[in-house]
Amino acid sequence: MKATKQEFRTKYKALRQNLSETEIEQSSLAIANGVLRLPIWDKSYFHLFLSIVEHKEVDTELLLHLLAGKDKEIIVSKADFETRIMTHFLLTDNTKIQKNAYHIPEPVTGIEVPSKKIEVVFVPLLAFDKKGNRVGYGKGFYDKFLAECAPETIKIGLSFFEAEEAIMDVFEADIKLDYCITPQSCYHF
């Protein structure tokens, strides 16, 4: 299917709302297993989004344990909704996580990590196409953040659903994914 970002946003928000807890759990496990097959394990600094349960996002807790088990440096972000800028913090045993007004789990404070140091970014999304373009929530947080990262930073989308044919209203500033992992597939762009 070819559609605009807004059309895909509406479609996939509705599809996600219909997922059961069991489906989310099983699909998230399959996605984490898919990530294990990627050629990323020589990297050290991994940025992970903490799932918004209320939006039925891919549960990243399994990935969190996987990264911790491989002794990776895990980075999580705090979003400023006025400036639309994300600040990144090293996740440690002392990091206090708290949900913000939008139900996003975020670090309260911590050791700040510059975007340029991050080598792998797991990107939340609602939909993506066969060229690696993604549809997020439309606030532009990840586009700004990914633009600050080094060009060689690996960008990995996580999705419950397969790729769409094309997103029609892609902008030049939109940053493409390198991979997208679904419960059934691993897309490489």
TrEMBL record:
Q: Which GO terms describe its molecular function?
A: 5-formyltetrahydrofolate cyclo-ligase activity; ATP binding; metal ion binding
| A matching Pfam family | 5-FTHF_cyc-lig
Going by the UniProt record, its keywords in alphabetical order are: ATP-binding, Ligase, Magnesium, Metal-binding, Nucleotide-binding
User: Which residues are ATP-binding?
Assistant: K5, Q6, E7, F8, R9, R134, V135, G136, Y137, G138, K139, G140, F141, Y142
E.C. no: 6.3.3.2
Q: Which GO terms describe its biological process?
A: folic acid-containing compound biosynthetic process; tetrahydrofolate interconversion
The catalysed reaction is: (6S)-5-formyl-5,6,7,8-tetrahydrofolate + ATP = (6R)-5,10-methenyltetrahydrofolate + ADP + phosphate
Detail which positions bind substrate. L50, E57
Q: Where are the annotated coiled coils located?
A: none
Gene3D superfamilies noted in UniProt:
NagB/RpiA/CoA transferase-like
Its required cofactor(s), as named, are: Mg(2+)
Can the keyword Nucleotide-binding be found in this entry's annotation? Answer: yes
| PANTHER family in UniProt | ATPASE INHIBITOR/5-FORMYLTETRAHYDROFOLATE CYCLO-LIGASE, CHROMOSOME UNDETERMINED SCAFFOLD_24, WHOLE GENOME SHOTGUN SEQUENCE
The family assignment reads: Belongs to the 5-formyltetrahydrofolate cyclo-ligase family.
Q: What is this protein called?
A: 5-formyltetrahydrofolate cyclo-ligase
Q: Which organism is it from?
A: Flavobacterium crassostreae
Q: What is the lineage of its organism?
A: Bacteria, Pseudomonadati, Bacteroidota, Flavobacteriia, Flavobacteriales
